[in-house]
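Hello support,

Our group uses your service weekly, and this is the first time we've seen a run hang past the timeout. The protein is RIB43A domain with coiled-coils 2. I'm not sure whether the cause is the sequence or the server load. Input pasted verbatim:
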Amino acid sequence: MFNVTLPSDSRSLRANRETERRERIFNDKVRTIGVDKEALDMQIKEKQKQKEAAKEEQNTSDADMLHNSKLARLLHSRQVKEKHGMERAIVNYRHQYQQPWSQREYDLNDPDRCRKMEPGDAQMMPPGLVGEDPGSESRRQRQREQLREWLNQQQSEQAAERHQQKLEGQQYDQSRVEMDNTALQLQCLEMERRKAAAVATKEYNLAMIEEKQGQLASADAEPILSTEAAPGLCTDRRPPPESPQQVVQFQKYQIEERKRMELEKKQEEQQHDHVRLDSARTALLIERQQARLNKQLRRHLDSTNVALAQTHKQQRPDIERGCIDDSFFSKFNTCSR
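Update from on-call engineer: The timeout came from a worker crash unrelated to the input. Re-ran successfully.
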C-alpha cells in the first residue's frame, strides 16, 4: 500500500520537531549549538593540569617545610643537650675543685671568724681598723700635685696660643698695610702714565695740526709756482690734500649715516614688535573664537541629548514606570530560529 501523509500529520510532525529543537537549543545543560566544545574541553584539561601542578608545588613546599622543621627541632634539641651537658660539667667541676673550705675568700659575717683565725694570720693583719687605707693621704697629695701640674700646663698652653694669635694679627695688619701701600704706588704710577699719555697725545695732535697747516700753505703756493714755471716742464700732478672743510663735511656725513642706520634699525625693530603684537592678538582672537564655537557646539550637543532623552522616555513610558505585563515576556523564546 502507498504511504499517504495527511496535512495534519505533517503539521504535528513539524510541531514536534520544533519542540524538540527548542528543547535542545534553550536547555543550557544539553545545548551544544553555538559552543566551541573542543575549546571548552581544552580549557578544562588545562585547568586540571594547572590544579595538579599547583597541588604538586604545594606538596613539595609542605614536604620542604616539614623537613626544615624536623632539622630545626633536631638542632634545637642538640643545642639544649649540649647546654645541659656544659652546665652539668661546670657544676661537677665546682663540686670537685671549688669547695668552700678551699676558697681564698672568707665570710665577713661569720661571728667566729676571729676565733677560727690562726695566730700567723692575725700577725699579718695591718694595725688599725678593718678597711682603713693608710696611704690615702699621700695619694691625695700626689693627686693634688698632678692637678696643679695640669693646671700650669693648660695656662702655659693658653698663654702661648694667645701670643701666637697676637703675632698672627700683627702679621696680618702689616701685610694689609703693605698691600695698601703697593696699591697706592700702582695708582700713582697709573696716573703718571695716563698724564704722560695725555701729554704725548696732545703733542701729537699739535704736530699733526702744524703739519696740516704746512700742507695747506704749500697747496696754496703751488698754483703760483705752476703759473710761473717755465714752459715745457711737467708740474706735480698729485691730488691736492684735503682741506679742513672737506674733513669736517666727511665727518658730518659719517655722523648722519650712522644716525640714519640707527634710525633704520630702530624702525625695523618697531616693525618686528608690531608684527609680533599683531600675530599674538590674532592668535588670541582665534583662540577665543574657537572656545566660543566649542561652547556653542557643547550647548547644542547637550540640548540634542536632552531632547533625545525626553523622546526616549516618551516612547517607553511603561518600562520607565514599571508597568510591564506578561505579554512583554511572551515575546521572547517563541521560536528556535
